[in-house]
Design goal:
CATH architecture of the largest domain: Alpha-Beta Barrel
Radius of gyration: 32 Å
CATH class of the largest domain: Alpha Beta
Structural class: alpha+beta
Shape: rod-shaped
Distance between the termini: 113 Å
Length: 285
Amino acid sequence: MSNDQYYSIGQVAKICNISIQTLRYYDKIGLVIPNHTDKLSGYRYYSNRDLLYVKIVQDMKMLQFSLDEIGEMLKNDSLDSLFIKLESKQKEMLDEIKRLEKTVKSIEQRTARVVMLQELGNGLKDLDVLVELKRFPDRHVVSDRGRYACGMEPSIIKFTKLFGKVDASDLITNPIMTVYHENIMTFDRAESDLEFCIILNHAGPETVNTRIIPENDYITALYCGIPNDVSCKRIYGKLQKWIENNGYIENGPSIEQYLVDMAHMMKPEEFIVELQVPVRKALTL
């Protein structure tokens, strides 16, 4: 036996830069089996061809082939078979690249949103509320309307169910909101006509309950903190005064929109809330 033809498992490990444990595993599963057994000592040795198989396995692993796929290729080593396998793996990797690029873009959007919320929250710390007149375009929403309890826990349950109906990309930057189909000052928080909504980037699939909140002017109040009975009525009262003082009248149900990252939904003290009341100019005689 000459060392340039047969190699011990330790020698193969050094030559191929692979661990002895991995070589033993390849032997165990029948992927690369030592070709020669010494009749006197019983020791098993790898041939030059076995070394080639080890290098092929390493090369194919680098190309993201599974050990099962590599085993099939070693059994059928025709170029036609190899071409088909490589072409299939290339498509698989291109699809994975697209998925990863989409994930990276989503992370970038998520990061930008968190930074925006941080800056917005810091800017609101010295303010009671920020009142602005805004015009919102048509908003496509997936929604769930019914007679529900009003509060953080029931709201989170409703929104969580809606999340399952929405494309993940819509959850990165799009706000969630509650539409009050009753008067905020007088409604019963134990059971009210409420509509929980997630704004969509598009019209939405026909398989879920979607609708359009039509374009309209809104008087809005932006504030930080937990949206509750006291804060909601206090902020709504401020907007009512603005409406009266500026010659407007209400023009539909009020909306409570939550500018919050989904990961912070369990931290209501970090919420940024915008109460939106639709308005139109009052008719003058």
